Amino acid sequence: MFLTPRHNEILELAKERGRVLVDDLAALFNVTPQTIRKDLNDLCQQQLLTRIHGGALYPSGVENLQYEARRQIAAQEKEAIGAAAAELIPDGASLFINIGTTTEAVSQALLDRKTLMVITNNINVANRMRVYQGMEVVIAGGVVRGSDGGIVGEAAVDFIRQFKVDFAVIGTSAIDRDGALLDFDFREVKVAQAIIANARHVILVSDSTKFERTAPVRIGHLSQVHTFITDYCPDPGIREICRENKVRLIETSPAPVS
After folding, report:
1. Most exposed of 127, 145, 146, 240 (fewest Cβ within 10 Å)?
2. pTM of this structure
3. CB 10, CB 31: distance < 8 Å
4. Helical H runs in the chain?
């Protein structure tokens, strides 16, 4: 199918930001939302974009989006998720914080705590929290990914295994309909698995766009976490998995944002 100039511009915006929204595009191009929905449907039919509620995602089945693009996706939702997760973590707790833009939102929300011991393989989290009095920040050794400051590899896995902490805050790149938690880098997945195995209470933080994505490497299963915090869970099957496995589901928005 022939791509119009507007189609090409929408694709470029989606590639840059990771996600585009109907209302934003309608305002940008000065057309109706119905026109933009047709544009997105056309692009999705050609498998150039992936449709989500209220917009579309730039597809990334084998490669993750760039860090800055991921930070911009669902930024407000991640902030609310971070605040909800922080409410579960009391002063004096020990915790792991894993790689990810949503886990970083949790670290931001924890900055008002008086005392915490934070073990992380995320350089961005360590840099944010280390300057606050009362925060004891311990950072893993290993290979530093230049793309996002994540520390991965066997050295990081061995480091994590030295600890047994109160909480783990983990993210995921995608959530499959069967409850599988998925990611892109097998080295990161090994660290995440070690984190899950060495925490008394595992908190999964993930915005609803992760239900629309896929990734090739399995971290684990939703049944392995204790609390799952998202802005909105659109899949009844995922809700049932949470109920069956006594996973507490916390939604920060009562309905999806258009």
Report:
1. 146
2. 0.76
3. no
4. 5-17, 22-29, 33-45, 67-72, 75-86, 101-109, 123-129, 154-160, 186-197, 236-244
